[in-house]
Design goal:
The structure is a single chain. This protein is of the alpha/beta class. The chain has one domain. It is built from 1 helix and 4 strands, in the order ββαββ. It has a two-stranded parallel sheet with strand order 1-3. The chain has a two-stranded parallel sheet with strand order 2-4.
Amino acid sequence: MKTLRLGLVADIHAGVTRSNVKSSGALALLETTVEAANARGLDLFVTLGDNVKKQGRG
């Protein structure tokens, strides 16, 4: 039986930087994460959410 290799990432928060969320580095961090996942030969890479932070609420 083949082993299924999974990768997970969550809470990227790309978008507007706030005092508690450093969104300015989010895309670079995601690129690094995807490169690392690809290097490991994963079968599935999943993003669990909170990917983009909206400008405002509502």
